[in-house]
Write a structure and sequence with these properties.
The chain is α+β, with helices and mostly antiparallel strands. It is built from ten helices and 13 strands. A seven-stranded mixed β-sheet has the order 3-4-5-2-7-11-8, sandwiched between helices. A two-stranded antiparallel sheet has the order 1-6. A two-stranded antiparallel ribbon has the order 9-10. Helix 1 crosses helix 2, helix 1 packs across helix 6 and helix 7 packs antiparallel against helix 8.
Length: 307
């Protein structure tokens, strides 16, 4: 039995999703509510954060993720710039429109104050490459042949899935707190690295009769006790509306004055998106891109009063 590139990509996405809902209780609540109402779970996109600076053996910035997506049929579509946040981003799409888009951003580290650049550099400079030599070979075979035997596919998916975590050693607690004063994105990425920043429900396809749109879905989640973002980004009927749960917090390993310790910090939120139709080449289709102002506001969902 052999698995195609598309099947292997689907297995990896499912693995990352299962890891995500195990950590983000609000996403699990959404799943339980939607499936309980006879609906279906379709994710619009996945977001990841990176540092555009030398990261040891791992490619820098967006390339840290792009070089893997290149083997999985994903292609870059649009580049975005967020000058105030010192971020650049690219979104990738798969030929199968039901596969989630992947939105990868990078912090332009050289635009931070020198002391902040130094903190990041000192933490990530000796980053190891998390994929094994065997997996690199398997990706080459997959690129050439378009398929792998089941055992090889299973091994590759497991190794790819563990790439999406913090690849460098635990940062110093003091460094995280100092970085957070200039960029909460930088502090989050120092703590979580390649971990998925968020998944996003594709409300258009959830098929819940009493939740026909984003507003009713957000209201339903709030009524079920899920803490939600206070507002919806975008106006009803526009080409993109987005909102989100608040971010869950986790105990994250850091290095304190007396050695390793745990610190409470935001991890991830579950985003929700409703897409409207646009006309392209004379045909009506769902808008598949992102809007800069909305994304800017949603980057802040990992900020809390505490951090």
């Amino acid at each position: 039995m052999k698995f195609t590139t598309r099947e292997i990509t689907a297995l990896l996405l499912e693995n990352l999703w299962e890891q995500f809902i195990a950590r983000v209780s609000y996403a699990k609540t959404y799943v339980d509510l939607v499936t309980g109402k006879g609906g279906q779970i379709v994710n619009d996109h996945i977001a990841l954060r990176t540092f555009n600076t030398h990261t040891g053996e791992q490619p820098e910035g967006i390339r840290a993720i792009k070089h893997i997506l290149n083997f999985l049929e994903y292609k870059p579509v649009t580049t975005y710039e967020f000058k105030k946040k010192k971020l650049t981003a690219v979104h990738f799409e798969h030929p199968d429109e039901m596969f989630p888009k992947i939105f990868v951003s990078q912090l332009e580290v050289d635009l931070l104050p020198d002391w902040a650049q130094q903190i990041i550099h000192n933490t990530v400079v000796e980053t190891p490459y998390l994929l094994s030599d065997d997996s690199i070979k398997l990706l080459g075979v997959l690129k050439k042949e378009g398929q792998l035997p089941k055992l090889a596919a299973d091994k590759l998916v497991a190794d790819l899935a563990q790439y999406f975590r913090r690849p460098w050693h635990a940062p110093k607690k003091e460094d995280v707190l100092q970085l957070n004063d200039v960029s909460q994105y930088a502090a989050w990425t120092l703590l979580h690295g390649n971990s998925v920043n968020h998944f996003t429900a594709f409300v258009n396809f959830q098929k819940v009769r009493e939740w026909p749109d984003l507003e009713s879905t957000c209201n339903g989640l709030a009524a079920a006790g899920v803490p939600m973002k206070e507002s919806i980004e975008g106006v009803k009927g526009s080409k993109l509306q987005q909102s989100a749960t608040l971010a869950v917090k986790e105990e994250v390993e850091v290095i304190g004055e007396d050695g390793p310790e745990k610190m409470n910090w935001t991890y991830a939120y579950y985003e929700l998106a409703e897409r409207g139709f646009i006309e392209e080449n004379g045909q009506k289709k769902l808008f598949s891109g992102f809007l800069g102002e909305q994304a800017t506001h949603l980057f802040d969902m990992t900020r809390t009063r505490d951090n």
